Amino acid sequence: xxxxxxxxxxxxxxxxxxIWDRSTLQVLKVLKGHKSIVRCLQYDEKVVISxxxxxTVKVWCIQTGQVINDLLYHKGTVRSLKFTxxxxxxxxxxxxxxxxxxxxxxxxx
Length: 109
Prior knowledge:
By secondary structure, the chain is mainly beta. It is 0% helix and 60% strand. The protein is built from no helices and twelve strands. The chain has a four-stranded antiparallel sheet, with no helix packed on it. Strands 5-6-7-8 form a four-stranded antiparallel sheet, with no helix packed on it. A hairpin with a 4-residue loop joins strand 10 and strand 11. The relative contact order is 0.16.
């Protein structure tokens, strides 16, 4: 869960991410693509990045709701993540941490 003055973004057990209007509490978008529970997420003005029990990290375009990158590294549930302008760090129940270089939402290594 994360929120700002305009929206609330939630990761749910039904494998979706919902973007809500904060003032009306109406769902604006539903992001579908994870194969298991969404465990963590963070967003900025361009992207939502989410981690799931399906062992993946997905990068979504916040405008279109489409997946623009799939990051595969972990062998367990991705339980935590944090990103800045150029770095994404993910943590997993597989007892690993991954540090990703974010040149752009579609170019992450």
